[in-house]
Write a structure and sequence with these properties.
The protein is an alpha+beta fold and 68 residues long. The chain contains two helices and two strands; from the N terminus they run ββαα. The N and C termini lie far apart (51 Å).
Length: 68
């Protein structure tokens, strides 16, 4: 079975998108056995990728900015 579903209803005014109805995309989790992580639903559905940062690295960056 598919893991993720993304629905699109179109943007803009209804009259501007009269030729666009409800659009459904189904996605697998796109994960291989050697991967710890996989694409999230929003990443698969919108092709917008989230960049994970370990908490230690984020804290280090915040300290650098605070002392700048």
């Amino acid at each position: 079975p598919e893991e993720y579903a993304a629905y699109s209803t179109g943007a803009g005014e209804p009259l501007e998108r009269a030729d666009f109805g409800l659009h459904l995309e189904l996605f697998t989790i796109r994960r291989t056995v050697d991967k710890l992580k996989y694409l999230a639903g929003s990443e698969s559905g919108m092709s917008v990728f989230i960049n994970d940062v370990p908490p230690e690295k984020a804290a280090e960056r915040l300290r650098e900015v605070a002392h700048a």
